[in-house]
Write a structure and sequence with these properties.
This protein is of the alpha+beta class and 173 residues long. The protein has five helices and five strands, in the order H-H-E-H-E-H-H-E-E-E.
Length: 173
């Protein structure tokens, strides 16, 4: 797995260091994984934990444990690693880990955009409510973004106030 991640990383200019390996002797419960991680992983020194999990239904318990400890995690099933693999599997795994570590995957040189924040807003009508999506870049390279979605209910308007809302699609309630 490590060698394949290194090969995939070279295409993106990402350095993959030798990982700390933690062996889980018994993989029957999430607590077995958590116990092995607790005994061998120092959350202050660890950037990300990649868990090869044999039983997908245990992921929730292991992920919850890692989240509570403030450890970024990435999961892959042993079944996926057991078959014939293409570099695409490792490229995707690497991209997901890189994004979780808030690292850039691509950078575009934009010399005219120094000290700039790009902001985008979009509005979608969704039945009786509207969704407002907001996005703003948060890095000098304009590659990291803060996003937020707001859901807002449309006001109910009585017949006497309909004249304040011109246009098609207005309905009396």
């Amino acid at each position: 797995m490590y060698e394949n991640l290194r090969k995939a990383a070279s295409a993106y200019g990402i350095v993959v260091e030798e990982p700390q390996w933690v062996q889980v002797d018994n993989t029957n419960s999430a607590e077995d994984y958590n116990k092995a991680i607790r005994s061998d992983v120092n959350p202050k020194e660890c950037k990300i934990v990649c868990v090869v999990i044999f039983r997908p239904e245990l992921k929730k318990g292991v992920k919850s444990f890692l989240d509570k400890g403030g450890v970024v995690s990435q999961f892959i099933t042993a079944k996926k690693l057991g078959g014939k693999l293409s570099m695409g599997v490792f490229s995707n795994l690497l991209k997901q880990m890189n994004a979780k570590l808030r690292q850039d995957l691509y950078r575009v040189h934009l010399p005219h955009f120094k000290n700039t924040m790009v902001i985008g807003v979009d509005l979608i009508m969704n039945g009786s409510s509207k969704l407002i999506g907001c996005c703003a870049t948060s890095s000098k390279t304009l590659t990291q973004c803060y996003t937020k979605i707001y859901k807002q209910k449309m006001p109910r308007v009585s017949g006497e106030h309909l004249s304040q809302y011109p246009g098609k699609g207005r309905k009396e309630v």
